[in-house]
Design brief:
The protein is an alpha+beta fold. 32% of the residues lie in helices and 39% in strands.
């Protein structure tokens, strides 16, 4: 996303709509998310949506030449 369009609430608005659709359409009680610990914007976004951090995965991914950890999140309906 271009810098001029960041931090405008577009991702939050889209996630709210997707979560509403999932809640109303599927018989699920839980949504999970995993993200690179360095992606601060992503984990702040899911936390603002009510997700709770449930754990860490060490050496979960290899990206741009280095190993990275991931945070695990869960949202219960």
């Amino acid at each position: 996303m271009f810098h001029s369009h960041r931090r405008q609430g577009y991702a939050h608005e889209a996630c709210v709509a997707v979560l509403k659709h999932v809640r109303e359409t599927y018989a699920t009680k839980r949504v999970v998310a995993e993200m690179d610990v360095r992606n601060v914007a992503s984990w702040k976004l899911v936390e603002s949506l009510g997700f709770v951090r449930t754990g860490n995965k060490l050496n979960a991914d290899f990206f741009k030449g280095e190993s990275s950890d991931e945070y695990l999140y869960e949202l219960m309906f």
